[in-house]
């Protein structure tokens, strides 16, 4: 599951431990054929809450709280990517590529469908650019 998540997301190889933690978190909340049940439910005696789980490495917009240093026309959100979850923490772990940091945040919006669409659009744009360049070279 970890390798599949890494391949699908295009995650940098240095962040493989985060993919592993996320895979374990999800597997512990999924039905297990070997134990005939959900590991979380068997251990804690209650059904796990899975409404908060989002697509791994999905685009996340994290709200920047209003402070005196934040001006009227400054951005009110930071761009990041969903890395995973942990017990007893509201929200999820988000990686911020501009800062090369990851932290747990609770005030965010996740755009799961945007990432895959954006990647497809970028692939099409690259193919179109290559086609234009090959056309120019022929003339």
Automatic annotation (TrEMBL):
Source superkingdom: Eukaryota
InterPro entries reported in the protein's UniProt record: Retrotran_Ty1/copia-like (IPR039537), SH3_retrovirus (IPR057670)
Pfam families: SH3_retrovirus
Retroviral polymerase SH3-like domain segment(s): 59-117
Protein name, entry field: Retroviral polymerase SH3-like domain-containing protein
Organism: Phytophthora ramorum
């Amino acid at each position: 599951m970890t390798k599949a998540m890494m391949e699908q997301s295009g995650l940098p190889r240095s962040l493989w431990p985060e993919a592993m933690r996320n895979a374990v978190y999800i597997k512990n909340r999924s039905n297990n054929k070997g134990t005939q049940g959900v590991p979380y439910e068997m251990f804690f005696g209650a059904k796990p809450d899975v409404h908060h789980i989002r697509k791994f490495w999905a685009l996340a917009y994290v709200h920047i709280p209003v402070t005196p240093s934040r001006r009227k026309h400054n951005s009110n959100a930071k761009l990041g990517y969903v890395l995973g979850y942990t017990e007893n923490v509201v929200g999820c772990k988000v990686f911020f590529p501009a800062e090369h940091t990851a932290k747990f945040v609770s005030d965010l919006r996740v755009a799961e469908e945007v990432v895959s669409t954006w990647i497809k659009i970028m692939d099409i744009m690259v193919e179109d650019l290559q086609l234009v360049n090959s056309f120019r070279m022929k003339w």
